[in-house]
């Protein structure tokens, strides 16, 4: 065993922040068995993942006992892949389901002692769209979807120096409004004509008219009767009414006229119902105070997220549990620092309303960014328009991304990639323009400048779960300085931290107690 100086303290290039590991719960093993492996890696903080509802009362008690006896702090990551934490897409059913699952998550944190929840505010809607596409929210069918911008709008926007997406949305709404107003006007006119013709045909098939016509044999009298009907040109054009004054109306002819009347009556009713449906579905999109049929999708997403998430966020804060909203990787929306600043500042503003019972300082201490280094790296070079300033920008290296954040950073996810995909590689693995020694030093510097006092979690997926990745990360960033109980953990548990006996390094009474709690009921 190598000798270590006792005065050395736990630390990393993140400064004094403890660096922990992530481990999924309810993934083929009992939840406490996932946690005990992470404890064996020497992690002072463990971020549990998975749906909170997958762990029952016994498992939660085992998790809490293991963590408390081994002096390990816990956080919980609401899973993205499940898609159940969808507060952004304006879909009432999905939003209510998200609130239900989130409240289960609050209870899970209370039961296990986890003090922070990590979530992606935009982790289900894909971001990577070609330039000729835009995300729009359709107010008529309550759906957010990508839509192709017609070439002529792209050309016109370029010629006028305007943003093609917003230009297209404005033009689409103008054109659609005109089409709807014209369609309703035309339908109202046609319906009026049909109703008039229907009334005129009712006179033709009335018992009084038929009786008078057939009782007289005088053609001149019949001609007068026909003239007195005063049928409009529309009635004569739309219905085969051709009464011959020289003869009576036969039963066959009368039956045909009545059939025509019933058909006209049915068509009139159908047109009336169709017009009512159009007004019901699109009435709010016409007139002087017309609502836009489509809106800019990401903006609408953020507004809906804030409106739907604020009530459960307030409840979470009142329970003493922090919330770290995580920047998404390059595949999803809310991946750039501008959108992160915007959505969190909107949430702050909403939560400052009196009905939530929270003060400004409390909100900012308890809700902030989970800065994910790897996600920032995967978005390197992507162009975006800052929603707060309107500036055109490019996402820089992870340290520059961190510098762009104007809201508190309360948690960090540490992993690396080559700036192309969200690979979740261990720290120290990459050496290029995206990740290098200068970038890592700047991350440490900027975290210190921002007054960061949170936890760091290595989210590395080497060989499945994060043991090897955690070990590689520790070895890479501070091989001489990361000690557990004054001892270099590599000398105790081997280079992968997975060679230990399941009970080694743990509080044994706690370990067996957790087994009894999980299986003894």
Protein traits:
disordered C terminus; elongated; disordered N terminus; 15 strands; eight-stranded parallel barrel; alpha/beta; 521 residues
Instruction: Report low-confidence residues grouped into runs of 5 or more.
Output: 1-11, 483-487, 492-521
What is the percentage of strand-forming residues? 5-15%
Number of strands: 15
Largest sheet: 8 strands, parallel, barrel
Description of the structure:
By secondary structure, the protein is an alpha/beta fold. 48% of the residues lie in helices and 13% in strands. The chain contains 18 helices and 15 strands. The protein has helices at 31-40, 57-69, 92-112, 151-160, 164-204, 207-215, 219-229, 233-238, 251-282, 297-318, 337-351, 360-366, 373-378, 398-404, 437-449, 467-477, 489-493, 508-519; strands spanning 19-24, 45-49, 73-77, 116-119, 133-138, 143-148, 294-296, 322-326, 367-372, 383-385, 392-394, 409-414, 455-458, 483-484, 487-488. The strands form four sheets. An eight-stranded parallel beta barrel has the order 1-2-3-4-8-9-12-13, surrounded by six helices. Strand 14 and strand 15 (487-488) form a beta hairpin. Helix 10 packs across helix 11. It is elongated, with a radius of gyration of 35 Å. The relative contact order is 0.15. The model is unreliable at 1-11, 483-487 and 492-521 (pLDDT under 50).
